[in-house]
Amino acid sequence: MNGYSGKLLFVDLTTHSFTVRKLSEDLTEKFIGGYGIAAKILYEMISRNADPLGPENVLGFVTGPLTGTSALFSGRYTVVCKSPVTGGWNDSNSGGFFGPELKKSGYDGVFFKGASVKPVYLWINDGSVEIRDADHLWGKDIIETEKQLKEELGEKKLRAAIIGSAGENLSLIASIMNDEHRAAGRGGCGAVMGSKKLKAIVVRGTGKIEVADPEHLKKINSEILDTIKNGAMSQMTSAFATYGTTLFNYSSAISGDTAVKNWGGSGLADMGEKSAKNLDTATIDAKYRVKKYACSNCPVGCGAIYEYKEGKWPVGMTGRPEYETAGVFGALILNSDPEVIIKCNHLCNIHGFDTISAGGTIAWAIECFENGILTADETDGIKLNWGNGEAVVQAVQAMSDIKTDFGRLLALGSEAAAAKIGKGSEFLQNVRGIELPMHDPRLGPGFARTYAIDPTPARHVKGGLGFMHMMTPDASKYNTEGTGQMDIVSTANAEVLNTSGLCQFGDTVGVENITGKLLNAVTGRKFEQDEKLAAGLRIFSLRYAFNLRHGLKPSDSRLPPRSVGNPPLKEGPLKDITVDHKGLIANFYNAIGWKADGMPVKETLEKLGGLEEIINDLNL
Amino acid sequence: MKIYIKLSASYSAARGIDDFSIDLPENSTVDLLLKKLSEDYSNLNVDRKETMVVINDKIMSRNRILNDGEKATIFHLFAGG
Questions:
Q1: How far apart (Å, rounded) are the C-alpha atoms in residues A391 and A127?
Q2: How many Å is the Cα radius of gyration of chain A?
Q3: ipTM surpasses cut 0.85
Q4: Which residues in chain A have Cβ-Cβ distances shorter than 8 Å to B77?
Q5: The listed CATH number (3.40.640.10, 1.10.569.10, 3.30.1180.10, 3.90.1150.10) that belongs to domain A244-428
């Protein structure tokens, strides 16, 4: 099959055995690849009452048909599992080089069930598979582990996805890291990996992925490069290539896109222009950036390496914090010291914490401290006041060490931490326990629908109208009339893009239907709007059905009131705005052809095809 | 009338500077400001529907009439991780 290696690897960590299965054409036709195919597999493999941190959970690392080919922007892979935070479906994707290397090693995806008694890692070397002892790696950070793996395997070109202390200690905000600075961070997938005593999956692959029309693929790649250079978005792409996602630190503080003061504050009114300016990427980059880097097959290269060698918390060479990270360790906690952001980002990366959830948890803890819910006795004496950068670094250090009661509390993530102390739930800013990312629905109202009812809640990278709304100054975006059809089309497009293995930033350079064009050249299949809509909604429905199967009720998904302007802010760019999230959600359900309470309808799923199993399983 | 311009990083990278001013006729709108900037500076492609203009900490619509001496912050938003 063009665009696929054609094999899936299933590893049983309880018995230390593995099997290889052929990837069926039926699966690729209906669910494309990546988490589309994985949703089908996990739906069948994970029983209804499976403990997400028990051996019955399944952890998958999957690639899309574009991954490992010469298609531009194709460096992504996705981690899938049942989330220990939501109790439902989880997928989280990452860039770098791990995904293409996995695909070239001979497998479109690897799935782990069971759990090892002792720490192990999986070594895939051009198709051969070995489960190896990882006792000596347990406790090492991400950087140390990768270095050790390269030494002991004698392979400098290997790529690895690794957990740090967060995953090993089953922190619910643990990420899986690859290529040192790239993270599959969300939903607690690092904890699932830790529960299986799987320290790393290590790959080396030199295989070639066949594509349907190599000449056509070259042509599409040329069109992409030409558009980047000469298209309408060339100016933006050029700036993005220089500064990466942090390009928007300052502008997002002005617009209100970045949440401020645990979602209770307002843009510059709380931050102050001078403080916001401190976080401007041009200023920070000039001081710390030593080199840029790109993920596999990326013609833009939004990554960069910083060197922080002098100051309060020097860390040496480290990854440039992404926008989300700068937001949660900046405006969200009223910090304007870039060194705090760099240090916290570094700690999260080397110990394997999701930066969005880590920052969101710290913001929650600060508001609890400011309101007397957490006292200095309970925070190991750390004075967690708004804007106290030093205290934030101390708190993130405690979270990373996971040695004190306070460190262990933070490592739970905000939802479980509030439950543990039995207080502070009024300050939680999460959906189903997942901390909100740094795009405010009061600026981009479409984010409200996406955050609330995507099967992976509180995600800015899932489909919907948020991006479009965010980027328009037109106040008509707050009128929900007629949003449903556009919302489901955008959602379906994002599903296809994500499952193909494409980076979302590839969709912003200005090439129309970039996903469809690349998929067509690689797989030979047509991916015009109708095909994308059907495939995308099929995948969305399957992920959604996974949640229903595991007992998640649509009505239980609630947005934090602050995020939708309840009550509305009294000043700043988002003053007096309340988002009609219920209207957006109702429109979505209506347009997709489901019931108003969020339950799928049998006839709608039958039209999409390939979902007969879930129709029966859910008694629709 | 004089309008003071502040470009965020996404546009200042193209223009080469952050702050400058521009002269416009009385009663000019935000829309005219963006069109004039795009005309005057060929590498500053701000006449786009995604461009945001903030004055006095509030996002302005395209038909907002500008007042002499106002400071307009101009930027383009994007989502990232």
A1: 48
A2: 23
A3: no
A4: 248, 251-252, 255, 257, 443, 470-471
A5: 1.10.569.10
